[in-house]
Amino acid sequence: MHEEKEPFQIQKRRGLIVWVYSLRQLKNLRRFGFVHYVSRKMKYVVMYLNEEEYEAKKAKIEQFHFVRQVEPSYRPDVAMDFADKIGTDEAYPSKGDGFDVEEKNTMIRLAENV
């Protein structure tokens, strides 16, 4: 009666920003992946593609006549493990930036005493 179901597996995806001349052909882009956001004012589309089909679909999207430019998301390429850097000297830039800070003692006057 109960069927064995596969456990849910997260698919690896990668973001793609597609700058377009016109948003009329938005349905054509929906065939390639999940459209996350559409900016009607600046005419760009943020979409997600599956990682294994990413390069082939990106090449097809770039060939459309209504596409101005295609930018990949670099987030998967950036190392996001900051735990080992917190509290170390690598987390803070060097303090010798060439600016001298001089504190001045300023007197605060209230408007009624002026």
TrEMBL record:
Matching Pfam families: DUF2129
Keyword Ubl conjugation belongs to the record: no
Keywords: Cytoplasm
CC annotations in GO: cytoplasm
Organism domain of life: Bacteria
The keyword Cytoplasm belongs to this UniProt entry's keyword annotation: yes
Subcellular location: Cytoplasm
Family listed: Belongs to the UPF0298 family.
HAMAP family to which the protein is assigned, alphabetical: UPF0298
Name the record gives this protein: UPF0298 protein A5886_001372
Organism of provenance: Candidatus Enterococcus testudinis
